[in-house]
Request: fold
Amino acid sequence: MALPGSAKPLRADAERTVRAILEAAERVLSANPAASMEQIAEAAGVARTTVHRRFVSRDALLAALAAWATQRFHDAVESARPDSVPPAVALYQVTVNVLRVKIDWRFAMGTLPTDSPDIARVHSAVLVRCEHLFVRMQDAGLLRPGTDLEWARRVYYALIHEAAAEAPATDAAVDALATRVVDTLLRGVGASGTG
Reply:
C-alpha cells in the first residue's frame, strides 16, 4: 500500500498503522463529521503525532480515506470476477461486495472528491467492468433483447445506493439486500402479465 501522492509502498508495520488510522477515521467521522485528528488518533490507538506524521492535514487524511474506500470498491468488483463467472453469479457477488463496501465505508464513499484523477481512474475501470457484465447478462438472456443497458446499469446503481442507505452491517442483512436488488433489477416490482 502506498499513500495517495506517494509511489513508495509502506512497510508492513506502517501499513497496519495507516489502516488502523483510516478505519478509525471512518468510524469516528461517520459518528461526527467534525471530529478532530486527536479524536481519530485516540480511536486508532495511536498518538496524535503518529496521525500527523502519516497525514500532514485533515484534508490529506480525508483524501487518503477516499482513496482507500475507492480501492475497496474496485477490489469488491474485481473479486466477483465479473468477466469470467456466469453473469447471474457475478451480478449477485458484485452486489454483495459493493454493498459491503458502501456500508462499511459509508462516510468515505459519501464524501469522495469529484476532482481526484486517481478516484476518477478507478471509477472508470469499474464502469468498464459493469458495462461488460451488463452486455454478458443480456447475451445470457437475463435482460430482454433491446434493453437500454446504460439505463439498466444506472437503475442498478440506484438500487444499490438505496439498499446501502438503510442497511445494517450484518452479513445476513447484506445477503438479503443483495438478493432484493438483483431480483428487483431482473424481475421488477410489477405483477407479471400486466400491461
